[in-house]
Amino acid sequence: MNEAIRTRNPWQTAAVMLLAVLVLLVIALMSMLQPAATTGTGGGRAMPPGAHAASTAGPVSAEAPYIDRHTEVVAAYQSNPR
Predict the structure, then answer these.
(1) I need a labelling partner for 54 at 20 to 30 A (CA). Which of 12, 31, 74, 81 fits?
(2) Dihedral angle at the C-alpha atoms of 5, 11, 16, 22, nearest 10 degrees?
């Protein structure tokens, strides 16, 4: 360890190790405090109020048939599980 840090002073070695641990701790805390991306819209933006009520009129995207098929598959699985 002393050759990697290039010191023979144990206090300096301990200080460098403590600094490295603190940097890793700060990075871990910052990554945990980032807001989670929401689903539904691209880029993690929040849905505006009333967006779901306006979208119930019918399919509005090219993915709607896939969503409908997924609903059918889930319903079939729930009625007859393997």
Answers:
(1) 74
(2) 160
CA distances from 43 to 36, 67, 73 (A): 11, 20, 28
Note the pLDDT tens digit of each residue in 17-75: 999 999 999 999 988 887 766 555 455 556 565 555 545 555 556 667 788 888 888 88
User: Which two tokens mark 29?
Assistant: 């805390």
Q: What residues does each domain of the chain span? A: 1-34
Q: What is the largest CA-CA distance in the chain?
A: 73
First to last CA, the chain: 56
Residue with tokens 């933006």: 45
What's the predicted TM-score (pTM) here? 0.38
Which residue has 């709607």 as its token pair? 64
